[in-house]
Description:
The chain is an alpha+beta fold and about 450 residues long. It has three domains: about 30-205, no CATH class; about 215-285; about 285-430, 2-Layer Sandwich (Heat Shock Protein 90), CATH 3.30.565.10. It is built from 13 helices and seven strands. Strand 4 and strand 5 form a beta hairpin. Helix 7 crosses helix 12 (about 390-405). Residues about 1-25, about 280-285 and about 380-390 have low confidence and may be disordered. It holds the Pfam family HATPase_c. Keywords: ATP-binding, Cell membrane, Kinase, Membrane, Nucleotide-binding, Phosphoprotein, Transferase, Transmembrane, Transmembrane helix.
Amino acid sequence: MSHRGPLMIASEVLQDLTPIETPKAEPIRMRTLVHLRWFAIGGQMAAVVVAWSMGIGFPKTPIILLIAASITMNLWLFLRPPKRTSAGRAVGQLSFDLVQISTLMALTGGMANPFALLVLAPVTIAAASLNARQVLALGLATVALISVAAVFGVPLREPGGEILRMEPILALGHWVALVIGVVFFAGYAHRVTAELSDTSGALFATQMALSREQRLQHLGGVVAAAAHEMGTPLATIKLIAGELADELKDDPDLHADAIALRVAADRCAAILRSMGRAGKDDLHMRAAPLRAVLEDAAQPHADRGPLIEIHAQGPIVRRDPAIIHALRNLIQNAVDFAESRVVIETQVTQGALVVTVRDDGPGYPVQLLSRIGDPYLTRRAEAQRGSYEGMGLGLFIAKTLLERSGARLTFANGGPGAVVSVRWPLDRIRAEDRIALAHNPNFEP
């Protein structure tokens, strides 16, 4: 059985900290397009059979050939399915459906066809799965084919041979309605899908941020164990170096080397003691004073320019990686936009704990206040300074993690800059003063 020491485990944790890109899914699965086309084929065949049984006159041969073309396409995709659906292949399939449906509409009365609305299906599917340029191309093609069908449509005939006509004003209104439908359905579906995709990507980034924070804490424990295990061999090196220095007093060069070796061993021991203390803090502390948690969250931004003032008096709270990471994001955002000062204040009421982070910068754009916390929001810097890149995602991650911990966030201006308040029910954030420590990890040499 193999033995894994703390250094090997630390290497594995560091590998886990490698940035992970958001996975990119297929635009739309080919199987989905095939299933949708089978439904369309069934509906087209049913309409042909019903119209034929009612004695309505229409060009039967070309219509049957068009339906047969769709059946052939589906059978070909079933027998030779592509391994992966690319955006170009999806555009090709939807273009085929668009041409087929538009031609059917033109051969069955044009604007007088009660099923003309189905011509909007391909562009709506495209809007939910493809990029804006491809949706625009299919939308323009849809409008062009609708217009051709309206002008050159073959009229239907009643059983007695009379032509079924639509009043010109009604035909024009139907055409306008279809064009509006192209714009509305495509635009709406594309916007909703884009927002869902942004939210999904932001949630993935949130999960990665929390996972990274937890792994870093685990790495702290591994460092503590490594520092403990390396203490003994370093003590041996120091002892031998001291003895060599005493024995080599007659040789100045070797004596100086032995002294240097002992000094280096002392320095390594000091570094390991520091690492061991930090690692033990990260691994074992499940609760801490409120001020200590806020100082931990603010520490990475302490030397970035603006002065960070912490005015905090409060209870012992949970030392949760998610809470610390979220507060760190809020403090980072304040530091990024502060002119000279960021103030972190706390207030404890009978049933709640409130943490307020305020800066003296330009504040949030008024038009975006209601949307603060949404992913990939228009950046405050673009509206105010034009330099900083990336407000929306960090605030979304902070808001998501804090809300999962039971907090409620409010964003406002005044102070004089931006102000964000985080409010927890005390029973969701308070921890016991003498909470038990976690178990020490076992490492085999």
